[in-house]
Amino acid sequence: EAGVTQSPRYAVLQEGQAVSFWCDPISGHDTLYWYQQPRDQGPQLLVYFRDEAVIDNSQLPSDRFSAVRPKGTNSTLKIQSAKQGDTATYLCASSLGRGENERLFFGHGTKLSVL
Amino acid sequence: GDSVTQKQGQVTLSEDDFLFINCTYSTTTYPTLLWYVQYPGQGPQLLLKVTTANNKGISRGFEATYDKGTTSFHLQKASVQESDSAVYFCALARTRNMGYKLTFGTGTSLLVDP
């Protein structure tokens, strides 16, 4: 079974540039999460979807970040105008279970450096 | 709100040493507690999970016990190997709003010398 696939693996940009991250979850997983992991810190939830619907985007900086999952499968996270503080690894995770049986499977992440 | 504290940023051991990684949590109710392991260049992988129904989790020689009295969830292993070198995250999980919200600690980097 293929795991969660993310691309690109790395991205380097100047402040003010835009970047998009792509995630292909495990087939059949209806819930998809995006996490931000700054260097030497734990992952922090940005947004998550159930099928194509956004369930919680309260931690997503809405002025510059956006996320979509139009067909309830793949997802794209976009940063409109990157800042140095956005330097982090962006992790995508997917899950299928419910309640205490839910288990998240993480991708390798996209490591972003904003110069 | 929920929070998880890992005070040890880095632990260095030799093979066959005993491992103890400290984790405490703060929350208003009894959550599910988890340990994740992250190898370089990879995403976190679930190591073990403990709910209020089963106070102890064991996986791959690692074990953690859910102690509601001290609000702790320390990770232990009797004898570490070089392949255990990785970053270990303690996490607290809540089921809410059709999702599974994880709150992670800052992580403990384990280096095992051969």
Which overall shape of chain B is indicated by the principal axes computed on the Cα atoms? globular
Q: First CA to last CA of chain B: what distance? A: 41 Å
Q: Summarize the helix and strand pattern of chain A as letters.
A: EEEEEEEEEEE
Beta-strand fraction estimate of chain A: over 45%
Overall pLDDT confidence of chain A? 94
The helix content of chain A, as a percent range, equals under 10%
Main pleated-sheet profile of chain A: 7 strands, mixed
3D shape of chain A: globular
Determine Rg of chain A (CA atoms, Å): 13 Å
- What count of helical segments of chain B does DSSP give? 0
Q: Which class best fits the helix and strand makeup of chain B?
A: mainly beta
Strand content of chain B: over 45%
Radius of gyration of chain B from CA coordinates: 14 Å
- For this structure, the quaternary state is heterodimer
Based on DSSP secondary structure assignment, what is the total number of beta strands of chain A? 11
How can the largest sheet of chain B be summarized? 6 strands, mixed
Q: Mean pLDDT of chain B, rounded to whole units?
A: 91
Total number of strands of chain B: 12
Our count of helices of chain A gives 0
Instruction: Report the span from N to C terminus of chain A.
Output: 37 Å
What is the fold's blueprint, element by element?
The complex is a heterodimer of chains A (115) and B (114).
Chain A: E1 5-7, E2 10-13, E3 19-24, E4 31-37, E5 44-50, E6 53-56, E7 65-68, E8 75-79, E9 88-95, E10 105-106, E11 110-114
Parallel strand pairs in A: 2-11
Antiparallel strand pairs in A: 1-3, 3-8, 4-5, 4-9, 5-6, 7-8, 9-10, 9-11
Chain B: E1 3-5, E2 10-14, E3 19-21, E4 24-26, E5 32-38, E6 45-50, E7 56-59, E8 62-65, E9 75-77, E10 86-96, E11 99-104, E12 108-113
